[in-house]
Amino acid sequence: MSGSNRDISRIQNASWAFTTRRVQRDTAKILLPLEGAPQSGDLVLASVTFLGQHPGLQLPNGRRKQLFPGDEIVVAYGNRYASNQFESIIPETLGPCHLVAGGGIASRALSWHVRMRKGPTQITPLGLLGDDNNRRINLRNFALSPISELAKTIPTVIAVVGTGMDSGKTQSCAYLVRGLNAVGLRTGYIKLTGTGAGGDTWLLTDAGAFPVLDFTDAGMATTYMTSIDQLELALMTLIGHIAQEGVDAIVMEIADGVFQQETAAILQSAVFASLVAGTVMASQDSMGASAGVNWLRKHSEPPVLALSGIISASPLQVKEATSVLNLPVYDREGLSTASNAISILNLAQQHVEKRKNLKTVPIFSQPSAVSEYGQQAH
């Protein structure tokens, strides 16, 4: 077997991570030498050398593969920001590094939460994946076609943001989708920022969202240390592609908390303001809710429509938050109720109509408000 054929066989027999799901595997023809520095999104064949906090790998088909030392995997280089797990950066060389996310991110861990007692899983790169022209294969080569200008009419976009990691954002998205679907609306889902992984995608698919897209569909393994220009283009691209499917509304999740650098940047963006009709704040407690909502009211144009997340499990925390912020607090079941979901949607669309009348954002417009059970108001 020739060297090239051996490379192809080795690449095809490896376990490919979730982050690689858009890549056409037959484009990988060769293992490139371990020369130079990796770039975000580059695909690498690596061997597992030590099992740490991530003993498994999420596959594109949704299965979680148990890893063993010596397993060969195909993952993507990327930075990671996860306050409850790992902070990591793309290494400067193609030497041994870490698997810092189960979705398949090769990186160099800088710090981690005390609960990550085992430390990061260690991997050794064997070669970058190359095409038949000996060029590196990168996730951006298989991204959705970019959209830098949207139609005048787009679906209503509701963003779910949070006070931090694990505040209940994804669950809030899933149950809000359930509520909008219960009204008879077709609802898409976007995860705009975060680390490439399958859990949120699969949950929102199960909840009934369609289409379900995230930043990996825009060619990014992760969004930590991504420029605001890239995020704005990803926002327009993902909204544009979902809008082409004829959905009535889009629920969009933004990872981490409002203080995280990419989250703060996109929330203050004029493009975000022109496309998003309102936000739902997921928090863990009343103090976090108050700080998060006040930050949004000061720095981000779209109005805060409601509170959700872990706070909803505590009646006393709910009482504190509602008395200070004058916002409804919905638990998961509340978000999935048709009447509550349509109330949130109508509040968002009232902001869109007000914005149109004030002509504060003349570039984009959105459909008129939806009244009960999905009938458009005229």
Plain-language structure description:
The chain has 378 residues and is of the alpha/beta class. It folds into 2 domains: 3-138, no CATH class; 156-374, P-loop containing nucleotide triphosphate hydrolases (Rossmann fold). The chain is built from 10 helices and 17 strands. The chain has helices at 3-13, 169-183, 199-207, 228-243, 261-267, 270-275, 286-299, 315-325, 332-335, 338-358, and strands spanning 15-16, 30-32, 43-50, 56-58, 64-66, 72-77, 80-81, 86-89, 97-101, 105-112, 121-130, 156-162, 187-191, 212-214, 249-253, 278-282, 304-308. The strands form 3 sheets. It has a 6-stranded parallel sheet with strand order 14-13-15-12-16-17, with helices on both faces. A 5-stranded mixed barrel has the order 3-6-10-9-11. The chain has a two-stranded antiparallel ribbon with strand order 4-5. The termini are far apart.
Task: Summarize the helices and strands and which ones pair or pack.
Layout: H1 3-13, E1 15-16, E2 30-32, E3 43-50, E4 56-58, E5 64-66, E6 72-77, E7 80-81, E8 86-89, E9 97-101, E10 105-112, E11 121-130, E12 156-162, H2 169-183, E13 187-191, H3 199-207, E14 212-214, H4 228-243, E15 249-253, H5 261-267, H6 270-275, E16 278-282, H7 286-299, E17 304-308, H8 315-325, H9 332-335, H10 338-358
Parallel strand pairs: 1-6, 6-10, 12-15, 12-16, 13-14, 13-15, 16-17
Antiparallel strand pairs: 2-11, 3-6, 3-11, 4-5, 7-8, 8-10, 9-10, 9-11
Helix pairs in contact: 2-3, 2-10, 7-8
